[in-house]
Amino acid sequence: MSAPTLGSTPARCLATALTASASALALTACGVIDGAGASGNSASPTKGDDITVGLLLPDKDTARFEAFDHPVFKKEVAALTHGEGKVVYANAEAGQDKQSQQFQEMVSEKVDIIVVDALDARAIAPDVQKAKDAGIPVIAYDRLAQGPIDAYVSHDNELVGEVQARAIVEALGSKAATSKIVMMNGDPADTNYAKYKEGAHSELKGKVQIAEEYDTDKWSPTVAEATMKKAIQIVGVGDIAAVYAANDGLAGAVIKALREAGVTRIPPVTGQDANLDAVQRVVSGEQYMTVYKPFLEEATRAAEMAVYKVQGRDIQFDALTQDSVDSPTEKEIPTMLVPVVSLTKDNIKDTVIADGVYTVKDICTPTYAADCAAIGLK
User: Fold this and answer.
1) Backbone phi and psi for residue 254, each to the nearest 5 degrees, phi listed first
2) CA angle, corner 57, sides to 15 and 280, nearest 5?
3) How far apart are CA 345 and CA 366, in angstroms?
């Protein structure tokens, strides 16, 4: 997958947004949405508001999909179509065969467009081709799928790995060069896996000692916990200075394994997705950080792209997809990349709370009340 051209206007806007805000306001200021880039109207829509959008999400272990992505996507489609548009939803529950079946059912039902977060980027390609043959556009969501997809919306996934790894190096400080870390990567079948890993390695190389490194089938916390126990035996529980965990599910499993090994002070552990339990672990100090990917914005923009594509609103669609990426099968896929933010104790108010993902009450349950008070979260 190629990165967006850094000299382009949208890429520069995204770089600015990364340092400015986790909200949609930064993108608005760049004229990508609701601004100069989207001004004017395209020709009359080729379809009305009575459209059907298929949404396929990959699993239920990642809390955001059921709690946020699906309901936000559904709400935005309804808003854009004056309540007439319908979302047909399916979750693969980490089963590739199940996702393929769900995809084919949507093609058979002749939905107007399919938005898919592919469990396996390569395996989904024949299904994408069937949709193309049936005249149904496909938008890849969160993970870049292979096959003739029409657009892609996600985050700068290499940057995700960089942000995670940078947090580890900063946490270790002057001891980094002599510190041993364990890397708990995600599922190689996930198209984002290589980008996370590449970004992390670019920041860790020559700065720390990677004692053990593992991949995690299907992003399974159960697999990660067993693997971490193996790492503890090999490296020694007292010699693990930090753990790179590619997402929050893996982070939780890693921390559980360390606790069961008798560790009372957890070394820095990274994460990704800003799941509620992970944010609470950040508050308590069990988890050092998580990468907050503004998925509310991602889901909203994906819904907009789907509706605009079906209705033939080319100007609005093009305004959202001003970057491009390559997949192993397609070149210059119209793309929107949403900025990411390193979430720590210091910026919880400015990220997930400010964006309305969680309230203080959600985070600061009785178990975490004292920890919340200690960082001024009330």
Assistant:
1) -60, -45
2) 65
3) 18
Distance of CA 84 to the CA centre of its chain: 29
| CA 286 distance to own-chain centroid | 22
Q: What is the 3-state secondary structure (H, E, C) of 58-108?
A: CCCCCHHHHHHHHHHHHHHHHHHCCCCCEEEEEECCCCHHHHHHHHHHHHH
Residues in the chain: 378
Query: Is the backbone of residue 13 left (phi > 0), alpha (psi -120 to 50) or beta?
Result: alpha
**Strand extents, DSSP E, the chain:** 52-57, 86-91, 113-116, 138-141, 151-155, 180-184, 209-214, 240-245, 290-292, 323-325, 333-338, 341-343
Q: At what angle do helices 295-311 and 70-80 cross, to 10 degrees?
A: 40
Closest CA to 318 of 89, 31, 48, 2: 31
The Cα 296–Cα 278 span in angstroms is 17
Contact between residue 127 and residue 100 where contact means Cβ atoms under 8 Å apart: yes
Per-residue pLDDT of the chain (378 residues; tens, 9 = 90+): 333 333 333 333 433 333 333 433 333 434 434 433 333 344 445 789 999 999 999 999 888 899 999 999 999 999 999 999 999 999 999 999 999 999 999 999 999 999 999 999 999 999 999 999 999 999 999 999 999 999 999 999 999 999 999 999 999 999 999 999 999 999 998 889 999 999 999 999 999 999 999 999 999 999 999 999 999 999 999 999 999 999 999 999 999 999 999 999 999 999 999 999 999 999 999 999 999 999 899 999 999 999 999 999 999 999 999 999 999 999 999 999 998 999 999 999 999 999 999 999 999 999 999 999 999 998
C-alpha to C-alpha distance for 53 and 121, rounded to whole angstroms: 20
HSE, side-chain direction, 13 A CA sphere, residue 232: 20
